[in-house]
Write a structure and sequence with these properties.
- By secondary structure, the chain is α/β, with parallel strands linked by helices.
- It has a single domain, classed as TIM Barrel (Alpha-Beta Barrel), CATH 3.20.20.
- Helix content is about 45%, strand content about 15%.
- The strands form three sheets. It has a four-stranded parallel sheet with strand order 2-3-4-5. A four-stranded parallel sheet has the order 6-7-8-9. Strands 1-10-11 form a three-stranded mixed sheet, covered by helices on one side.
- It is globular and about 60 Å long.
- Bound molecules: iron/sulfur cluster.
- The site of iron/sulfur cluster has 12 residues, from loops.
Length: about 375
């Protein structure tokens, strides 16, 4: 393939398996020839995973939508006295887990708001009791934002919080709460939330204890291309130190029911480019995952040709993106996910919550 003059050298680096710089990354984000970008991202994707796209059978559980932070982009959060406030008891969560206990290779994904009535002890009890119901379940629970809250409210040191969760049965931590690290944007959209430095610090501590995590980036909230590169660069630098991130998941801002409705829509072409450039730049993060809940099902097919090798799983019941107006189903069957993968002419492979492949489903 002949590349445009301005990215010719960068393209050569990518083809030769060399690392690209932050300046290169910015050039790619500013470059408008999408087919070149997709081609380059796909080389890396196929070198690593061939035509396989993985997914997991997972169940999302949001224990509470009551939150002390007041992030402006969040339609999920409710005030304690609101009619829509919803806090699940530990028993009701255990009932949900009990109903799905027969799924093999189940991943349980638990997150919630910073709820003063959900303590660190509750978190530990919940994890231990889920393990009693399904010992082999992989529990991915509590973002860095919640972990910071547990440390503050329990008075325990970070490492103690992380260790106790690990002993209780946590397998990994989800990547939410990173938003975009830019202090300029955070000041506008989530002034009360922990800053990017703290998010990275907790991720590092988790990695050092041998607990893998994911990384995310919220986009469509007024960020510049430079701020995207800075975010990606911070993730790549930490990963060089710890190798603890399993995947990177770009999250498209869902603006319905938020005061940020006036922010411009991100064109599909820009979204696809962001995935492709992320795949190219984050050479040390194994997986690029598409969260179909927010990006849409049709786009999920295309992403698999723009660097994505992993799709969000069955989910069963997603609340956070849907409160923000996501038009996708609140959950999907395994067959429906396989259909999206096959429609993209890729081969679906079920994985567990730690990215171990469990079986090949069938050829596309
Ligand atoms: S994004 Fe998280 S921390 Fe922010 S208000 Fe929503 S639930 Fe709370």
């Amino acid at each position: 393939m002949r590349f445009s003059k301005d990215i010719e050298k960068i393209a050569l680096k990518i083809i030769n398996g060399e690392r690209i710089s932050s300046d290169d990354c910015l050039k790619l984000l500013e470059h408008n020839n999408l087919s070149e970008m997709f081609y380059l991202a796909n080389i890396i994707r196929e070198k690593r995973y061939g035509s396989f796209t993985t997914f997991s059978v997972n169940r999302h559980i949001n224990y509470s939508n009551i939150c002390q932070n007041k992030c402006l982009f969040c339609a999920f959060r409710k005030e304690e006295n609101s009619k829509e406030a919803r806090r699940l008891s530990i028993d009701s969560i255990l009932k949900i887990v009990d109903e799905i206990r027969n799924y093999p290779y189940l991943e349980i994904h638990i997150t919630g708001g910073l709820d003063p009535n959900f303590s660190f002890d509750d978190a530990l009890t919940l994890v231990k009791k889920i393990k009693e119901i399904k010992k082999e379940a992989i529990i991915k629970a509590f973002t860095m934002v919640e972990l910071d809250y547990f440390a503050k409210t329990s008075g325990l040191k970070d490492v103690e919080v992380l260790k106790r969760l690990k002993e209780a049965g946590i397998s990994s931590f989800p990547g939410g709460g990173a938003e975009i690290f830019s202090p300029r944007i955070r000041k506008k959209i989530c002034p009360l939330k922990i800053d990017g430095k703290r998010w990275l610090e907790l991720s590092k501590k988790a990695h050092k204890l041998g607990i893998p995590t994911n990384a995310t980036m919220l986009y469509g909230v007024g960020e510049t291309e430079k701020e995207i590169v800075q975010h990606l660069d911070k993730l790549r630098s930490l990963q060089d130190e710890t190798s603890g991130f399993m995947s990177f998941i770009p999250l498209l801002f869902q603006k319905e029911n938020t005061p940020l409705k006036k922010l411009r829509e991100v064109a599909l072409a820009e979204q696809l480019k962001l995935y492709a450039v992320s795949r190219i730049f984050l050479d040390n993060i194994p997986h690029i995952k598409n969260h179909w809940v927010m990006s849409g099902l049709k786009a999920a097919e295309i992403y698999q040709w723009c660097g994505v090798d992993d799709l969000e799983g069955t989910v069963f019941e997603e609340r956070i993106g849907h409160e923000g107006g996501a038009k996708t189903p609140i959950g999907m069957t395994k067959e429906a996910i396989e259909k999206i993968i096959k429609a993209a002419n890729r081969i679906p492979v079920e994985r567990d919550g730690l990215y171990n492949r469990v079986k090949k489903i069938g050829a596309a």
